[in-house]
């Protein structure tokens, strides 16, 4: 009986906290159609001059670049339904290392690779994906950089696909002429068949991939294509109102931190320990973060000190209204700790 009462008490405290919405410090300027997914580019010389990249998801949509107060400072238009985007650092192209943004272009069945921060295409018009399948329409993407080999991979999801090979993984490399190509190295990923898989996140340091199987749960796999394709974990199956969306990973140490996952129809984010629970491949929700974003799809988070406004980092989430909301991590963290302290 005591155990049942304790669980009920914890649930009640979580519900109580959902009435305290976290408000953004800034909102980005509006795009033309429909924001979907953000990603950070961290300026190595001055973190306060870092950038937020985001997709405008529609035919003839675009990639927008914002400063840390949400002002549009660059954009590329005429992209055929860009969906998700990610950033990685130090890909060797044309004899020099450069930072890249990679995003899915659904209506051309390609992924696109642009250099950042200048946002110039370096993919010879795009890299075709899912070429051996009738099920294409790429949506989700996340980049993985192997800490040992420094090789960079794109993990790509699509509108639908077979269970066991829903995701394709591509090695990104120079074609010898200063353009980036993708070599298919892996097919993996269980799928419930309930809706679709869009949001994908990679933890480079821990070498794992998470992805949202909407209306079902969050899957965890090894990120290295030479490792086992066996699923490592499935969690969150009873924690969401409906669609499971954006995944963001906030490190607090070498192996510790938080995983935040959008509960889209509830306008909240569920929080799990990055390191897992006692069994490191089990994950129990530790907090619910109510936010001002509406129907949040993609999100990203960083623990970098961006300056006085964001000394412990920043959380960015898509919201209805053609914008992204920019949050001070300290506000998110305060709610996580408050809920933990009340347990």
Assign the CATH topology.
Answer: Neuraminidase
Mean pLDDT: 94
**Mind describing the biggest β-sheet?**
5 strands, antiparallel
Q: Strand pairing plus helix content: what structural class?
A: mainly beta
In the CATH scheme, the class would be: Mainly Beta
Radius of gyration (CA) equals: 19 Å
CATH superfamily: TolB, C-terminal domain
The fraction of residues in strands falls at over 45%
Terminal CA distance: 17 Å
The coarse overall form would be globular
**What is the number of helical segments per DSSP (H or I, 4+ residues)?**
2
Order of helices and strands: HEEEEEEEEEEEEEEEEEEEEEEEEEH
Number of strands: 25
Which consecutive residue ranges, at least 5 long each, have pLDDT under 50?
Answer: 1-18
**Overall tally of structural domains:** 1
CATH architecture heading: 6 Propeller
Helical fraction equals under 10%
Could you give a quick summary of the protein structure above?
The protein is mainly β and 343 residues long. Helices cover 8% and strands 46% of the residues.
Structure, explained:
The chain is mostly beta strands. The protein has one domain (2-341): 6 Propeller (Neuraminidase), CATH 2.120.10. It has 2 helices and 25 strands. The protein has helices at 2-17, 329-341; strands at 26-27, 35-41, 51-56, 61-66, 72-79, 82-93, 96-105, 110-116, 120-121, 127-128, 138-145, 152-158, 167-174, 180-188, 197-203, 208-213, 217-222, 233-235, 244-251, 257-263, 268-273, 287-290, 299-302, 314-319, 323-328. The strands form 6 sheets. Strands 6, 7, 8, 9 and 10 form a 5-stranded antiparallel beta sheet that branches. A hairpin with a 3-residue loop joins β16 and β17 (217-222). The two termini are 17 Å apart.
């Amino acid at each position: 009986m005591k155990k049942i009462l304790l669980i009920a008490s914890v649930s009640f405290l979580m519900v109580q906290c959902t009435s305290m919405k976290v408000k953004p410090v800034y909102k980005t300027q509006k795009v033309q159609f429909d924001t979907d997914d953000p990603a950070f580019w961290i300026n190595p010389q001055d973190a306060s001059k870092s950038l937020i990249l985001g997709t405008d998801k529609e035919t003839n949509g675009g990639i927008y670049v914002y400063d840390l107060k949400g002002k549009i400072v660059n954009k590329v238009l005429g992209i055929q339904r860009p969906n998700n985007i990610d950033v990685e650092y130090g890909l060797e192209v044309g004899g020099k290392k450069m930072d890249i943004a990679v995003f899915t272009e659904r209506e051309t069945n390609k992924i696109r690779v642009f250099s950042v921060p200048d946002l110039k295409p370096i993919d010879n018009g795009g890299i075709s994906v899912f070429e051996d399948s009738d099920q294409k329409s790429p949506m989700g993407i996340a980049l993985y950089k192997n800490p040992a080999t420094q090789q960079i991979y794109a993990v790509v999801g699509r509108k639908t696909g077979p269970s066991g090979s829903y995701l394709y993984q591509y090695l990104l490399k120079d074609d010898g002429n200063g353009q980036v190509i993708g070599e298919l190295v892996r097919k993996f990923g269980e799928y419930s068949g309930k809706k679709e898989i869009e949001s994908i996140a990679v933890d480079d340091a821990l070498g794992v991939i998470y992805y949202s199987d909407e209306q079902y749960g969050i899957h965890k796999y090894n990120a290295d294509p030479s490792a086992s394709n066996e699923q490592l974990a499935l969690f969150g199956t009873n924690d969401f109102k409906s669609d499971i969306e954006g995944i963001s990973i906030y490190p607090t140490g070498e192996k510790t931190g938080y995983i935040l996952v959008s509960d889209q129809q509830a306008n909240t984010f569920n929080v799990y320990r990055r390191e897992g629970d006692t069994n490191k491949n089990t994950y129990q929700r530790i907090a619910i973060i109510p936010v001002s974003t509406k129907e949040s799809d993609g999100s990203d988070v960083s623990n970098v000190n961006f300056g006085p406004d964001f000394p412990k980092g920043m959380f960015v989430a898509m919201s209805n209204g053609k914008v992204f909301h920019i949050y001070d991590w300290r506000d998110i963290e305060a709610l996580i700790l408050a809920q933990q302290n009340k347990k």
